[in-house]
Design brief:
The complex is a heterodimer. By secondary structure, chain A is mainly alpha-helical. Chain A contains 22 helices and two strands. Chain A is globular. Chain A starts with a helix and ends with a helix. Classes of the chains: A mainly alpha, B mainly alpha. At the A-B interface, helix 8, strand 2, helix 9, helix 19 and helix 20 of A face helix 1, helix 2, helix 3, helix 4 and helix 5 of B.
Chain lengths: 506, 147
């Protein structure tokens, strides 16, 4: 507790709070704009942090991710276009409310639920990460190899429609991570004689290409003019109770928020599940309990908005638990943050709690400050963000491309970085088109060096197959991995069969 | 189904290319007392090849069984995506061999026009605005020279 108080005193400076507020506002804006997700926003913003202090930089990026998670509800409720896939349930329950003149009420409840879910998950992160890190300190390279392999397979199985395609994406990520000088012998690998590749492929151009540029390529193909959408805020009901959250709304929404926060926290801690799984699970559970059936979507449901938004926002801080405790990024946001932390001289993992404890505590304090700022900025900026939702993609996308180029140029060693960004933009587009999980690729790419190091150390330590029995944790994770592959394979086959049956019926 | 087959064949060819050409020529084997630097790349390439072959077999079997299935992935047209990428590449080339200013102006304005923006004031104003912002950020605030 004393450490956390010290963290607050480090974090609550005018400069740091200004960066957090800027991050939350920027994230809220980007989240509100359809088509731009948390990952894109955070990746593009990393270069802006090169010249600021590590704490302010990390707090700024976390502010963006929190803001964009909450902001995506704005376009979902007002124009029935989710800012990102995880806000689809919000659109299902919230857009009918907006059509009925209750847009303000739905937006406010979405914001309150987001903040509650976010604070709950941040507190869980604060309580859980350090004990988990202490446990992680006791594991050796053999155990770490097993845990990393388990995480990659788990993520591969859950982040796409096919386990085998997910595994291919993860292996491709590991392969790309091998480019550059090898750790032990310092011999160049797959550098094709290019000196620029000796340090490996630069993370930021790869991430910007895979996330932002590829998304821009997709959006260009699906370009639509959203400016003609109805202004539902102006068409608000004249009854004051339709524009605010009443006691009755709280009564019906509180259980949904509690359930949503819990679901979001569990989903966030497990690597690979992502925000969409959290919001859909929470929405489904609340819909079933409401007993309204199809009226839940046809008339709209304030508790549906609360359920989806609380879970969506709880996932973001919860996904930092495995990142801070073990150094394993369980989501796109965590994967990008790992890059940002490394750029600022911080190596995520259990040692962070020993070597840089004050920084961690200050990050926690900044995260809680970000939650409060999210509430204030979201509440008072609601009308402004609602207007920005109607900006044309023809203005947003070229601006994003410009920012992508700046980021890739700065972090990728000049024009070389721009080339890498274009190459991985194309690869990201192909991955999206053919359903190869780019999330698994990115996480494989980021975990690659750590995985290779621990694999090499394990091979040096274990000379005989029987020696593996000296590592029970590795055996447990190996066993879970095998069971996981089997179960995930079954799950995917069943889902595919159900899809085919639905198509055949249609 | 067709997409699964095409991507399976592409990944199979990639895996074979890695195993037969790129890894042997681009990675030297380690000495007797070290673990080969090619170990992890080989594991990855073998895994990709095997899984791609599995995907091909599964896709062919489903096609033979006459299963109707939606193709995996999102429907994304090639033309606009490649045109957008080509615009970015053109911008980078102008940036590399000419100057950053015309590169930004051309890239942003062309993308806006391609995405349906027809208001000339915006078509001129936004690229110039971004250029000025970039100039102020890099040259004045950060003290960098981008060229």
């Amino acid at each position: 507790m004393t450490d956390l108080m010290q963290g607050f005193s480090d974090a609550l400076t005018y400069g740091n709070i200004a960066w957090v507020a800027f991050g939350v506002a920027l994230g809220y804006l980007v989240g509100a704009l359809p088509g731009l997700g948390k990952g894109t926003a955070t990746a593009v913003a990393i270069p802006l942090t090169f010249y600021i202090e590590p704490l302010a930089a990390i707090a700024f990026l976390i502010g963006i991710s929190k803001g964009s998670a909450a902001g995506s509800a704005v376009s979902a409720i007002l124009i029935n276009t989710p800012g990102e896939p995880s806000s689809t349930p919000t659109a299902m329950a919230g857009y009918p409310l907006a059509q009925a003149g209750k847009a303000q009420k739905a937006l406010k409840m979405g914001l309150f639920a987001s903040v509650i879910g976010d604070v709950a998950a941040t507190l869980v992160l604060i309580v859980l990460a350090q004990p988990l890190a202490a446990f992680a300190m006791q594991i050796g390279p053999v155990e770490l190899t097993a845990i990393l392999a388990f995480s990659l397979i788990f993520i591969a199985g859950l982040s796409g429609k096919s386990l085998s395609r997910g595994l291919i994406a993860g292996l491709f990520g590991l392969l790309v991570a091998c480019v550059g000088l090898e750790i032990e012998t310092a011999s160049p690998r797959m550098t094709f004689g290019m000196v620029e590749l000796f340090d490996g492929l630069p993370l930021i151009p790869v991430a910007i290409g895979m996330l932002a540029l590829s998304e821009m390529m997709v959006q260009v193909g699906q370009r639509q003019d959203e400016t003609a959408k109805a202004d539902l805020l102006k068409a608000a009901s004249e009854r004051p109770e339709d524009s605010r959250v009443t006691r009755a709304d709280w009564k019906v929404s509180m259980p949904a928020i509690a359930r949503g926060s819990l679901i979001g926290i569990v989903v966030g801690i497990l690597p690979g599940l992502g925000t969409s799984v959290g919001s859909f699970l929470s929405y489904g559970a609340t819909r079933r309990r409401s007993g309204k059936g199809d009226r839940f979507e046809s008339e709209g449901a304030i508790e549906g908005v609360a359920a989806a938004e609380s879970a969506d926002n709880a996932v973001v801080p919860a996904s930092l638990v495995p990142l801070f405790a073990i150094g394993i990024p369980g989501s796109v946001i965590a994967a990008i943050l790992i890059g940002a932390l490394i750029i600022h001289g911080v190596t995520p993992g259990p040692l962070m709690f020993i070597e840089q404890k004050p920084l961690i505590m200050a990050i926690y304090a900044s995260m809680l400050a970000a939650s409060l700022l999210l509430l204030l900025i979201g509440y008072f900026g609601q009308n402004v963000f609602a207007r920005l939702v109607r900006l044309s993609p023809a203005i947003i996308m070229p601006t994003v491309v410009f920012l992508c180029c700046i980021g890739a140029y700065l972090q990728g060693g000049g024009a070389f970085g721009l080339g890498i960004m274009v190459l991985f933009g194309l690869i990201g587009f192909l991955a999206k088109k053919f359903d190869y999980s780019f999330v698994t690729f990115l996480i494989g790419y980021i975990l690659g060096p750590q995985f290779e190091l621990s694999l090499r150390q394990s091979l040096a330590l274990v000379h005989d197959a029987s020696e593996i029995f000296n590592h029970p944790i590795a055996i447990v994770f190996g066993f879970i991995t095998i069971i996981g592959i089997w179960q995930l394979g079954r799950m995917k086959r069943r889902a595919a069969a159900e899809t085919n049956a639905t198509i055949a019926e249609a | 189904m067709r997409n699964e087959l095409i991507s399976g064949v592409a990944m199979l060819l990639f895996g074979i290319l890695m195993l037969v050409v790129i890894i042997p020529t681009e990675i030297v084997e380690g000495g007797d007392y070290t673990i080969s630097p090619a170990l992890l790349p080989k594991i990855c390439a073998i895994g990709i090849t095997a899984l791609a072959a599995l995907n091909i077999v599964k896709a062919v079997r489903r096609m033979q069984a006459g299963e109707t299935s939606v193709d995996a992935g999102r429907p994304m047209p090639w033309g606009p995506a490649l045109a957008a990428l080509a615009t970015v590449v053109a911008g980078i080339l102008i940036f590399r061999y000419l100057h950053p200013a015309p590169a930004v102006l051309l890239m942003v304005a062309a993308l806006m026009a391609y995405m349906g923006e027809r208001r000339w004031l915006l078509l001129i104003g936004l690229p110039i605005g971004l250029l000025i912002t970039g100039y102020l950020l890099f040259y004045q605030v950060l003290g960098l020279v981008v060229a």
